[in-house]
Amino acid sequence: xxxxxxxxxxxxxxxxxxxxxxxxxxxxxxxxxxxxxxxxxxxxxxxxxxxxxxxxxxxxxxxxxxxxxxxxxxxxxxxxxxxxxxxxxxxxxxxxxxxxxxxxxxxxxxxxxxxxxxxxxxxxxxxxxxxxxxxxxxxxxxxxxxxxxxxxxxxxxxxxxxxxxxxxxxxxxxxxxxxxxxxxxxxxxxxxxxxxxxxxxxxxxxxxxxxxxxxxxxxxxxxxxxxxxxxxxxxxxxxxxxxxxxxxxxxxxxxxxxxxxxxxxxxxxxxxxxxxxxxxxxxxxxxxxxxxxxxxxxxxxxxxxxxxxxxxxxxxxxxxxxxxxxxxxxxxxxxxxxxxxxxxxxxxxxxxxxxxxxxxxxxxxxxxxxxxxxxxxxxxxxxxxxxxxx
Length: 390
Prior knowledge:
By secondary structure, the protein is mainly α. The protein has 16 helices and no strands. Helix 14 packs antiparallel against helix 15. The longest helix has 30 residues, at about 295-320. The two termini are about 25 Å apart.
């Protein structure tokens, strides 16, 4: 694997930690800023929706700028926004910090994926993409559990000190990258035209639905795990570490499978496993306190980690193959679909809590994934992929 990809993976690690660390901090944030846990969950929604809406626009506006400069400025904005979040006195200002951080992430991630895709030979493109998304995966193994522990023993604000430092280190690493050739400039109209291709739109919709289902549950994973197992902050951090380790295997499976296994067959298996594992959490809430609760939680988290993180590199590979002449456009749109799914999923989770309970989250998330599976089956993804560029 090209060593230059390491700096890009470090950047996605910083973004992944900053994006998802709230999953273990919502209760502390809610208590400190005098809002409900459901309202605190909108910190995830605002970040994700801002990312989804701003990514195509920002990447278009920066089309003539050298990729290395885009990556450095975007990561610097992300780090600075998280530094300001440390001292945010109100929930509203914290929401604004999340929106600004999302803009930095929205410019960084698709640029990093496009650069990685261009640096890798065609037969290794799936693994190159999974290496970059591996930074997000490692965030689940190290960044999120560590952030949760810091929040438990210190303050959620100190967690954002950690995120800001990670972002600053990533920005320094990006400065060491050699110059990378700028991709062809693509207008916003061309990006919209890409969306008009039915097979591309279907693939992006599949991405959004899959992430929507996962984030209905993941946004509120800390109180959910505490309810099922009775664990405190340290125990929940340990469970999040298990989830992250499983995610590493899932990310590797998705990258390998994209290059060596038929897309539709693997995607179908991944979605079925994801649906079942999310549904399991509703049953586990009902059986909390029983002998099956803790081992069942271990199994559900492990299966979810593998399935959920195999899904992302599969989808990135798929959309890049469907639009080979505008690969950077396709990847930026897929990144938007990922964060749109996360944002809507977090919002659905808040509604599920307001009108139901923690036990409602699992079946709502599973229903979203079931819709993704129906879309996969109904859009003929067994058809040959688009012809390669040239």
